[in-house]
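User: Hey, quick favor. My workstation is busy. Could you predict this chain's structure for me?
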Amino acid sequence: MDWLTTFIDTAPIFLKGMLLTFQLTVVSVIIAIAVGLLFAFLKISKIKILEVIADIYIFVVRGTPLVVQIFIFYFGLTSLNISDFWAVVLGLAFHNGAYIAEIFRGAIQSIDKGQMEAGRSLGMTRSLAMRRIILPQASRRALPPLGNQFIIALKDSSLASFIGMYELFNVATTQGSISYDYMTYLLIVAVYYLVLVLFFSIIVSLIEKRMSISD
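Assistant: No problem, here it is.
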C-alpha cells in the first residue's frame, strides 16, 4: 500500500515529466522521419557522392553512443542560444534518422522494380512514380519496424536526464535521492514508460489496420 500511496502522491510531478518525455519523443521522431527519408533517397541514388554521404552519416550514428551525440548537440547548440529542449530533440532526431533511413531504404528496395518501370511507361517522371507508386507501398512495409523504432526513441529520451531535463527518468532519480528509496521510484517510472509504450503501440496498430483497409 505504501507503494500505491507514493504512486498517487507523486502523480502530478510524474505526469509533468511524462508530458516532457512525450514531447521529446514525438517531435524528435517527426524530424527523424524527414531526415531518414532524405538519407534513404541519398542511399539509393545513382550519384556516388550522395551514397557516400549517407554511408558516412549512418556509420557515425551507429559507431558512437547516443549519449555522446546528445552531449555534442547540447554543448554545440546551447552555445548558439538554442534551448535544451531543441538540443535534445535534434540529437535524438539525428540518431534515430540513421536507423529510419535504413528502414525506408530496405522498404523502397523491396518493391519490385517493375512497379517503377510501369509508372515510367505511363509517362510519369521518376520522382512522380516514386511518390505515387513506390512510397505508398514502401510505407506500409516500413510501418512495423518504424513502430519499433518509435518505441526505442521513447526509451532513448531518458538520456535527456543527463543534461538535467526533468523528464520521467530524472523525476524518478531526483525523488529517489530525496527519499533514499530509489527502488520505489524506479518501479513507478517503469509503469509510466509502459503506459507510453502501450499508447504508441496502439497508435501504430491502428495505423496498420487503417492501411490494410485502404488496400
